[in-house]
Design brief:
13 helices, 4 strands, 74% helix
Length: 307
């Protein structure tokens, strides 16, 4: 009877797997068509020639990839670095990194504060953190503009207090972009950190104080290692969208402080160089993939350490 029972169990397991596959098939189809499809189109376009008035010419060409980091002099055909593109890449990476650091600086104590509240109060604080998501990104960006523009809230308050005699130019600068992205993506840092801190056994923190550990040593040796998965996840959730940000740099940068998202849009629009825009899009995707691989690698090490 045992073999027959084993056969029945195997048949039931295979049937369950087929049913599960049938249930997830619509979602997989949407992912393949809706997500992978456009990426395949961009990859193909990146190896085609640019049309005279936009679009592509169906001829194999690597000119789009060549122009990502290099350029050819229009007078003597010498090859040099595309300084404008390198500057935009550097601005995108640096602003995304600084924004992530700022989100950690402001998000960590916020998550710690919520996690240390009584359980019946935590839902209220989380509700307050998620309120900005109720408003459209464009509206939130314009709100930041109203705060930091020359006639905005900050400059008006400083001038009325007599601290400055003329407005400080904050709008249309890298600072404005960084401030806007920090405001927009800060909840994406707070929520994963809170999820990790909620599971933290605060008796370990109390024990470290009982053993005369300083606050800094407790933070570095007890709290940070235990909330590391949430810290990494939050950093990825902030860093990745910051790299491809379009609305915030466009509005707060005034079209003068371009980032990768703006450069890609420019190539598909005014630049009329679709292969270059496609190559830039795939390059951005590769950068994001590297960031995600770093996250997966750290998460795997963390899981192995806990195991």
């Amino acid at each position: 009877m045992a073999p027959h029972g084993t056969d029945y169990a195997a048949i039931a397991m295979r049937r369950e797997r087929r049913n599960n596959l049938a249930l997830v098939s619509p979602a997989l189809l949407i992912l393949v068509v809706g997500a992978s499809g456009p990426l395949v189109v961009m990859l193909i376009y990146s190896f085609l020639a640019a049309g005279d008035y936009g679009g592509v010419v169906w001829e194999f060409s690597t000119q789009g990839w060549f122009q990502v980091f290099l350029q050819r002099d229009m007078f003597d055909d010498t090859i040099g670095f595309a300084d404008a593109h390198l500057s935009i890449f550097w601005r995108s990476l640096s602003l995304a990194f600084i924004t992530t650091v700022l989100c950690v600086i402001f998000g960590f104590p916020t998550a710690y504060f919520i996690a240390t509240r009584p359980p019946e109060q935590r839902s209220l604080w989380l509700f307050l953190v998620t309120i900005p998501f109720w408003t459209n990104l464009l509206i939130r960006t314009y709100a930041i503009m109203e705060v930091i523009r020359n006639e905005g809230l900050v400059n008006t308050a400083l001038m009325k207090a007599g601290l400055i005699s003329q407005p400080i130019q904050m709008l249309y600068t890298d600072f404005a972009i960084m401030l806007g992205m920090t405001y927009v993506y800060l909840p994406l840092m707070v929520l994963p950190l809170y999820a990790s801190m909620e599971k933290l056994d605060f008796r370990l923190v109390e024990a470290s104080y009982d053993l005369y550990a300083s606050r800094m040593n407790t933070l570095r040796r007890i709290i940070l290692p235990l909330v590391k998965p949430g810290l990494i996840a939050g950093s990825i959730l902030v860093f990745v969208p910051c790299l491809g940000a379009y609305v915030t740099p466009r509005v707060l940068g005034g079209g003068k402080r371009l980032m990768l998202g703006n450069l890609i849009e420019l190539q598909f629009g005014q630049g009329r160089n679709w292969p270059l825009g496609a190559a830039l899009s795939i390059t951005l995707l590769l950068i994001v993939m590297v960031a995600l691989l770093i996250y997966v690698r750290n998460a795997s090490r963390q899981g192995g350490a806990h195991g």
